[in-house]
Design goal:
globular; 3 helices; 105 residues; 3 strands; alpha+beta
Length: 105
């Protein structure tokens, strides 16, 4: 999960390179309930170039009036959560890569 579109694109490229099929990726926008949820959905849809059916219902964070948020305005699109369906084999692959990288040092 991240709010940086560049980092999300990087992670999606990593997943593709790791052999994850685009249709196995699932997305969820996490955003404050007072923000423009529809605009955020359009924004993240454009960033990911995914099919709209891959997006789940957004997670809305309740607004706390005592909190002074800095993430407001027209350029606030919340965070995007990226999930991979049946990702057990991907997890083991990444774990092996990390183990190999650490043992080489």
């Amino acid at each position: 999960m991240n709010s940086d579109p560049g980092l999300i694109r990087f992670f999606l490229r990593f997943l593709t390179t790791a052999g994850v099929a685009p249709e196995d990726m699932v997305f969820r926008v996490c955003i404050h309930e007072t923000a423009d949820v529809k605009a955020a959905h359009r924004f993240w849809l454009a960033v990911t170039d995914a099919d709209p059916s891959q997006f789940r219902s957004p997670t809305l964070k309740r607004h706390v009036t005592k909190t002074v948020r800095k993430n407001v305005g027209d350029d606030y699109f919340g965070c995007l959560r990226v999930e991979v369906r049946q990702s057990g084999s991907l997890y083991r692959k990444i774990e092996a890569w990390a183990s190999a990288a650490m043992s080489a040092a």
